[in-house]
Amino acid sequence: xxxxxxxxxxxxxxxxxxxxxxxxxxxxxxxxxxxxxxxxxxxxxxxxxxxxxxxxxxxxxxxxxxxxxxxxxxxxxxxxxxxxxxxxxxxxxxxxxxxxxxxxxxxxxxxxxxxxxxxxxxxxxxxxxxxxxxxxxxxxxxxxxxxxxxxxxxxxxxxxxxxxxxxxxxxxxxxxxxxxxxxxxxxxxxxxxxxxxxxxxxxxxxxxxxxxxxxxxxxxxxxxxxxxxxxxxxxxxxxxxxxxxxxxxxxxxxxxxxxxxxxxxxxxxxxxxxxxxxxxxxxxxxxxx
Length: 289
Ligand SMILES: [Zn+2]
Fold this sequence. Notes:
Blueprint: H1 2-23, E1 31-36, E2 39-44, E3 47-54, E4 57-60, H2 66-80, E5 84-88, H3 94-97, E6 107-111, H4 114-120, E7 130-132, E8 135-140, E9 143-149, E10 159-163, E11 168-171, H5 192-203, E12 210-213, E13 222-223, H6 227-247, H7 252-258, H8 270-286
Parallel strand pairs: 4-5, 5-6, 6-7, 11-12
Antiparallel strand pairs: 1-2, 2-3, 3-4, 8-9, 9-10, 10-11, 12-13
Family: Belongs to the metallo-beta-lactamase superfamily. Class-B beta-lactamase family.
Organism: Entotheonella factor
Domain Metallo-beta-lactamase: 47-215
């Protein structure tokens, strides 16, 4: 285990250096990667979604943006020759669900809280045709996807998508495989306790062995389910360290210099994102009375 972890850490470190040096400024082109069975991962620059191809059509998820979705629809037609029957939104953020009309989906499914936020933020994508409150299962061509509401934190309409036939779970934004949380961790917008509760709720989901995330370390997009607990552990430990330093009267500058989180240095973008994560945590904690 320790050896495997070291090797994994080394691989991530090498890939990280190569990737940051070569493509951080020039994101990789669009790709489609086969996961297993009818399940595929679609990547567009720094964003990803998944889709399931069945005998009776395709279940697509986040379109990402209009251009990406138009490209993906072309690939659906070329590679599979099947229509999109369902389109599922993970949550309302424009960088994940813009351009949904490109697929011509028969049904668009999302959490019920998404409607107000799509309208309020003027997200350029069609409203869902079907909404749900807690869980919903969609079945097509003998395969299914289970949609699970994660509660309020990073938006109040975020859902997890489980593909039981492929033993896979797709999670967006609250965790990113093998990578530190994004920049300031939604400080000023998201609720930190809510994010932690969303991750805990995702951790309660069982019956899969592949965690697929919408962002993450390049070429390492599939993680084991325990990645959720590892990244929650990181956020909690960072919260505790930053809080202790704030309670001790340290300035943000001092906190940046002293909080190292070395246990997590094998994670992708550790050097780039740790200072930003600290800034974000400082803001999150300062928001509280
Ligand atoms: Zn988001």
